[in-house]
């Protein structure tokens, strides 16, 4: 596939170009680097993050809408505990993505990093009925990773997702989802006080 076709399919061709991106010429010639002073579209709020806005490993809590908790166990043990808790609940485990294994498959290194994807249509469907766009964030995801020897667990804050998608009528359901996600992340049982 020609680079020009690939760039077009990926949506990187822009009028006037973006600094550092290739742009297609009007006459169909090969793409050329765009000048750094070329006009660009105004970025959306989501696109405005810069390298300085990216949290360091000690600052995940600064990521809007992400709840992060430490785990005393290894990534493998934590992910296995969460997996067992999901499988012994009304939730359905859809898959576990082992990002470290995927990195190793292309001769790259990544500390242990696992993503569990799970859900319950009885709970998620009413959210999607309230705002179809929330489907981009469902099913639920829980990330378990090694951060310099410390295992951590993160998930999307349901209240943040409600704000993001304009869901205003599901307060009780969102509280229940928050409680379940917290229990999964921390290993706390509902029976504990």
Distance between the termini: 60 Å
Q: Identify the CATH homologous superfamily of the largest domain.
A: TT1751-like domain
CATH class placement of the largest domain: Alpha Beta
**Poorly predicted segments:** 1-58
- Helix amount: 25-40%
How much beta, percentage-wise?
Answer: 15-25%
3D shape: globular
| Neighbour order of strands in the largest sheet | 3-7-6-5-4
Oligomer: single chain
What structural category characterises the helix and strand content? Answer: alpha+beta
What CATH calls the topology of the largest domain is: TATA-Binding Protein
How would you describe the overall organization of this protein?
It is a single chain. This protein is α+β, with helices and mostly antiparallel strands and 193 residues long. It folds into two domains: 1-39, no CATH class; 58-186, TT1751-like domain (TATA-Binding Protein). It is 32% helix and 20% strand. A five-stranded antiparallel beta sheet has the order 3-7-6-5-4. A two-stranded antiparallel sheet has the order 1-2. It is globular. The N and C termini lie far apart (60 Å). Residues 1-58 have low confidence and may be disordered.
Any chance you could write out the topology, listing elements then pairs?
Elements: H1 3-10, E1 22-23, E2 32-33, E3 66-71, H2 75-87, E4 92-98, H3 99-104, E5 113-119, H4 121-130, E6 140-147, E7 150-156, H5 158-165, H6 171-186
Antiparallel strand pairs: 1-2, 3-7, 4-5, 5-6, 6-7
């Amino acid at each position: 596939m020609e680079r020009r076709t690939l760039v077009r399919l990926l949506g990187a061709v822009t009028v006037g170009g973006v600094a550092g991106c290739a742009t297609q010429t009007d006459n169909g010639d090969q793409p050329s680097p765009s000048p750094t002073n070329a006009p660009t579209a105004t970025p959306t709020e989501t696109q405005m993050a810069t390298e300085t806005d990216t949290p360091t490993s000690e600052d995940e809590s600064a990521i809007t809408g992400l709840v992060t908790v430490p785990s005393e166990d290894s990534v493998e043990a934590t992910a296995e505990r969460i997996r067992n808790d999901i499988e012994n609940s009304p939730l359905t485990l859809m898959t576990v993505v082992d990002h470290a294994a995927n990195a190793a498959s292309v001769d790259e290194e990544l500390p242990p990093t696992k993503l569990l994807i799970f859900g319950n249509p009885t709970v998620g469907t009413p959210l999607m009925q309230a705002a179809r766009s929330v489907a981009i964030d469902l099913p639920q995801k829980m990330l378990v990773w090694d951060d310099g020897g410390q295992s951590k667990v993160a998930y999307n804050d349901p209240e943040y997702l409600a704000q993001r998608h304009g869901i205003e009528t599901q307060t009780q359901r969102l509280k229940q989802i928050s409680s379940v996600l917290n229990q999964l992340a921390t290993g706390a049982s509902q029976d504990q006080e």
